[in-house]
Amino acid sequence: MMPAKNIKIAVGLSGGVDSSVAALLLKQQGYDVFAIFMQNWNDATGTLHGDCEWEEELSVARMVAKKIDIPFHFVDLSGEYRQRVVDYMFREYEAGRTPNPDVLCNSEIKFDAFLKHAMDLGADMVATGHYCRRDVVTDADGNVSYRLLAGTDGNKDQSYFLCQLNQEQLSRALFPIGHLTKPEVRAIARQAGLPSAEKKDSQGICFVGKVDLPVFLQQQLKAREGDAVEIFRDFYDGLKQPQTLEEMAEPVVYSKADGKVVGRHIGAQFYTIGQRHGLNIGGHKEPLFVIAKDAAQNVIYLGEGQSHPGLYRQALAIKAEDVHWIRPELALNPGQELECMVRIRYRQPLQKASLICKEDKMYIRFEQPQRGVTAGQFAAWYTSDNELVGSGVIER
Predict the structure, then answer these.
(1) Percent of the chain at pLDDT above 90?
(2) 23 to each of 11, 133, 214, 343, how far by Cα in Å?
(3) Which residues does the annotation mark as catalytic?
């Protein structure tokens, strides 16, 4: 193996404590380390007036690089980000789906556009401050594969956000803090006197900063008032219970005649399945939740209470072309099944499920019904030893 000093590593230095400690550890291990700060958002239109958080982060990142004594570079990737992540996000919301821009940021920007820029500067590998791990396995024929593993800190595991990476990207990736907990990372930063040691984790949209997603969407997508319809529990008494896998994966389709108009909303595209805040509809014992939406008719459907049957599904479907295997040699063929653990959103505890591969779709059947299955989000599946092996976009 090549000596560490001969391996040049570009660290994506964001100004946060995680990437700062990642850079510090690599420097201490003897690697040839340099930092790159990437700007992902440049609102030249003047339509968004939030705090310029990225400028503050740039300043902190420069101080961290100086403290660690590593070269510092700046790259503006806002053009690529707008085209490959933000525009996609707007299209999905407008179509009534709920995308995950953080997943696309990693596969399309950090480990693609950013990786290429780093390699142009001479980097052999790219490191980030993600709480996940990577290891290498070799089969009997000598073929090398890269595994993506959950982070040791269950409260901070970020492997879900990397569920669309491929083997080429993983071959160039390092996650220096994946074996640590957040408190351990903070302690290392304090001991080293890093300027980011006490910096709070960023909130809001990853590329905009201190701006809530609904606020941002309303500045980009046109508001359009529509009806909010409540679906009562007795509606389900007359429904035929799903029997086949395909029926289990099919969401209930509602019409306004199935319930009662209880309020108005500002546009179906601004809401997501399972949402309870921002509805502004009173007169109920328990909170109302969005259980479905019809973007074409601009209607949202609501159910009262956490246990409302409209919030739960036993299965979901992913189109065959939207299925991604991190290790292609583990891909299922039509007719095959796999027992695994699945999550359908970040921070959700892993759920026992079966993957069932068919010609046109991959189905996920859960052991227990799942709350808030949302079209456009990513489902990610793991093996029993915490390896994330694949993912896909939930169809509907």
Answers:
(1) 84
(2) 6, 16, 34, 30
(3) 105, 206
- Does residue 21 sit in helix, strand or coil? helix
Q: What fold is seen in the domain 312-393? A: Elongation Factor Tu (Ef-tu); domain 3 (2.40.30)
**What are the phi and psi torsion angles at 217 (to 5°)?**
-60, -40
Q: Which residues contact 56 (CB under 8 A, 6 or more apart)?
A: 15
Residue spans of the domains in the chain: they are 4-219, 220-309, 312-393
Q: Pick from 130, 120, 139: which is nearest to 173 by CA?
A: 130
- Cβ burial of 142 (10 Å; 0-12, 13-18, 19+) is exposed
**270 backbone dihedrals φ, ψ, rounded to 5°:** -90, 0
- Give Cα 354 to chain centroid, integer Å: 22
- Of 35-49, 105-119, 251-265, minimum mean pLDDT range: 35-49
83: its two tokens = 């085209």
Question: Does the domain made of 220-309 have the CATH classification 2.30.30.280?
Answer: yes
CB burial of residue 63 (10 Å; 0-12, 13-18, 19+): middle
Smallest CA-to-CA distance from 129 within 41, 57, 51, 50 is with 57
Residue-by-residue DSSP string for 246-257: HHHHSPPP--GG
Evaluate whether 364 touches 354 at the Cβ level (below 8 Å).
yes
Cα 8–chain centre separation: 28
Residues 100, 164: Cα–Cα separation, whole Å? 11
Tens digits of residue pLDDT in 291-348: 999 999 999 999 999 999 999 999 999 999 999 999 999 999 999 999 999 999 999 9
pTM over 0.85: yes
325: β partners: 390
Q: CB-based burial of residue 391 (10 Å sphere; 0-12 exposed, 13-18 middle, 19+ buried)? A: buried
* Residue 267 · residue 240 · CB < 8 Å: no
